[in-house]
Amino acid sequence: MLDTYLVAPKTLKRLRSGPSGVFIDDFADALERNGYSAASVIRYLRAADHLGRFMLAQGRALADTGPETPEIFFRHLPTCTCPEANGGKINHHVYFGAKRFREYLIEIGVCQDNKPLIAQIREPAIVGGFRRWLQKHRGAKAPTIRLYCRDATAMLNVLGDDAGQWDPKQIRTFLLDSARSCGAGTAEKRVTSARAFLRYLGVQGLCRAGLDQAVPSLAHWRLATLPRCLSADEVDRLIAACDGDSCGRLRDRAIVLLLVRLGVRAGDLANLHISDIEWETGTLRVSGKGRYEVRLPLPQDAGEALLRYLESRPRVAGGGHVFVRNIAPFKPFISGYCVSSVVKRALKRAKVNSPAKGAHVLRHTAATEMLRHGLPLDQIGLILRHRGIDTTAYYAKVDVALLRQIAQPWPEVTK
Asked: pLDDT for 48-61, tens place per residue?
């Protein structure tokens, strides 16, 4: 495989005879499978060879590379004296080439990625059980589990490891003190995390029953604000900003149309698989919070945009995810933040001054558009997968024309 990119016999001999030589051909093959351009493959191969020589000069083997190795290697480049390195220029290609080579070594089992092991050592056993409970019994997604477990660990660090000794006063004091050092949004999330953790402890008999009732609620006036959404003109400009035949623009157009037509969450699209698209019935199978699965009708324009993207999408090994990165390596989106980043860039291209910059503003937009077109609140709630009608009622305030019909004049201003 190395001969595909390099032809000089001297260069081929140097790369194959170096400390990284035993892996260099297979590494080139892996880079090609992941969609890297020929120029990038050559740079990364040189970086892999240089990394091997650097490790040898340090008296270490490639199996000893750790998470910090690419950064140490990059700092070494300005004063590099590695024999036959031939690639010591300081640029991001050398750094990312070394980083990608280490990832490849992890994939084939030459070295180990010890990050998960460190996390497991630092996490208390009781939090580990909470993590498994959230995943198995609550169907929580990875970001939610990560947030809840982080806050649970903070509670244990402050209140002590023996949850059986906790009392309501301690719980309230901990949360009130915590709220003083953060914003309202963070404090609200910590309250939710604490309530879930205490419920788990109560179910497991690790704390007194009903201790979750001691968690104070933050002052919050329901339905006090208007939904943040885009106007019809702004939606048209946003979709137009995704016009084009490039794979990136086709992907962005499909994402924007699915968000604004169906009101799905960013995480729904990040986790969407090709098998979830039922072309025969024209429906999309979506599984969101708490494993709540529904089938949504696939609008014509969104379906056509999705089909055009899938026809031009780079090949991805395994997984079957619909939406993937637009640059090599062509890996699936890891979370809803990737989808929100697509929306954020599209809003910037369209020069839309949005009240919010992520994908959720399009969910609000979809809900308000459904309401304006006469769809009943219960059906809107079904599409958005709301657990209660009160949540969907939040969008009723945007129908100003209907509200004017039922608004009553104030007595003191009538004549």
From this structure: 999 988 888 888 88
Of 131, 313, 385, 386, catalytic: 386
Question: 329: cis peptide before it, omega within 30°?
Answer: yes
Catalytic residue among 76, 289, 357, 397: 289
> Does one domain contain both 321 and 275?
yes
The model's pTM: 0.72
For residues 401 and 379, what is the distance between their CA atoms, to the nearest angstrom? 21
Domain holding 178, by residue range, is: 123-214
Pick the catalytic residue: 265, 313, 321, 364? 265
Q: Is 386 an active-site residue?
A: yes
Q: Is residue 292 among the annotated active site residues?
A: no
d(CA 107, CA 85): 25
Q: Tell me, yes or no, if 199 is annotated catalytic.
A: no
Catalytic, out of 14, 363, 364, 385: 363
Question: pLDDT tens-digit profile of 96-109?
Answer: 888 899 988 998 88
pLDDT tens digits for 319-336? 688 999 888 888 888 888
What CATH code is carried by the domain that includes residue 296? 1.10.443.10
Q: Are residues 244 and 201 in the same domain?
A: no
CA 247 to CA 67: how far, in whole Å? 33
d(CA 180, CA 149): 21
pLDDT recorded at residue 79? 79
Let me know whether 18 and 58 are in one domain.
yes
Domain count, the chain: 3
